[in-house]
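Lecture 7, part 2: worked example. A protein chain together with pyridoxal-5'-phosphate.
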Amino acid sequence: MSRLYFDHNATTPLCPEAKAAWLEVVDTHWMNPSSPYRAAAAVQVRLEAARAELADLCQVEAERLVFCSGATEANNVVFRHWAQRLPASGRVGLSPVEHPSVLEAAKHYFGERIEYLPVDAAGRVDMAVLEKRLGAGGLAAVSIMAANNETGVLQAWPEAAQLCRRAGVPYHCDASQWVGKQPMTGMGAGHYVSGCAHNFGGPKGVGFLILPSQGDPCRITFGGGQEYGHRAGTEDVAGVLAMLAALRAAKPQATTARDAFIAEITQRVAGTQVLGEGAEHLWNTVALVMPEFSSTRWVRALEKAGCWLSSGSACSTGHASVSHVLLAMGLDAAVAGRVLRVSSGFETSRADWQALAEAFTGAYQSLREADAASPSKVISID
Ligand code: PLP
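Predicted complex, written out as C-alpha cells:
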C-alpha cells in the first residue's frame, strides 16, 4: 500500500537537492574546515559561502548567523543568554502557544518572571496588548513565534519585532515553521531568530540562530573559536550545505490545495471544523476538530488506511496530555482531544490531498462500525 505522509510539520523527508549536497560534502569536502591545508580551507570557503547566502536571504550581516543543531538548541540558548544578561527583575513576554523548546526553556530560566501575552481564538497575540505592556516598561524581552507548528496560524511577528525595536526591548522569533515555507525577506527584523532544516526538506540536527549585531556576545559553547566565537565545535558542513540546498529548492506555495481539502473534508465528515479559520495560515497546515472520536482513534484508523498524520505536536507525542496550544486558544480538553493536524510538503500533490480526503471517509466509516459492533468496549474521551 502506498503511504500518504501528512505530518511535515513534525519533519520532512530529505529532498533530493539536500541529499546530493550532503553526499557531495561527505565524499569530497569532509575535512575539518579549521585544518591548516588548502583542501581544508576549501571546506571553510564553502561553509562561509553558505553563511553569506543564508544571511543574504534573511537580510542580515553574515556575522549574525550561527549554525547549530536545530531550533531546540537555538531557542534554549536565547533564554540562557537572557537569564545571564537581563536585569534580575526583568520579565519576559511570551505567547502561550510557543513550541515546548521555548516554553520550557523560559520556565527553566525565568519561572515566575514570565508574562504570557493574551491570544485570540486563532492563537494570535494581540499586538495592542504587546504595545501597551512594552510602553508601560513591563517587559525586558519578548519571544513570539512566526508560525505555529500545531495549527499553521501566522503571528504578526514583523509588527512584534518593530514594536520591540521601538521600545528597545530584545525580541526573539522562533521561525522554525516559517523558514522555507514563507518569504525570507525581513527575517532579520528579530534581534534573535531560530530556524531548523528538517521542516523544509533539509536534514535533522541542523539549524541556525540569528543574533543581534550589537550587545554582549552570546557564547553557546566554549572551546575553539568556530562560528565567530559563538559556538565552539567542529562544524557540520555537510548538514549546513544540505540545509542551504533544501532552502534554495523550497518555494512558498499557494493555499489552494489545502483550501480544496478543507472544502472536501467538511462535506465528507459533517461537523468537522477548522481551527483558526479566517486567520492567515501556512499553505501546508490545517488543524481539524473532528465531530466524533478521539484524535488517537482517528490517527490509528487513518494509518490503517495508509495515511500518516498527527494528533498534535510530534514533539509531545507519547504524552497523553492535551495540547497547551489548543487550551490557550480556548478549546476545552474534550474538544482539544478530537483535533488532528494535517501538514503537507513540497512533494505533496493535489491527488495526494484528494486521496487523504477519501481515506477520511473510509476511516470515519470504520470507526462508526467498530463502535456499533462493540459499543461497550469502546473507551472514548469524546
Ligand atoms: N520550534 C518549532 C515551532 C518547531 O516546529 C520545532 C520542531 O519542528 C522546533 C522548535 C524544534 O526544532 P528542532 O527539532 O530542530 O530542535
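The two ends are 31 Å apart (CA to CA). The longest strand covers residues 192-196. Keep this in mind for problem set question 3.
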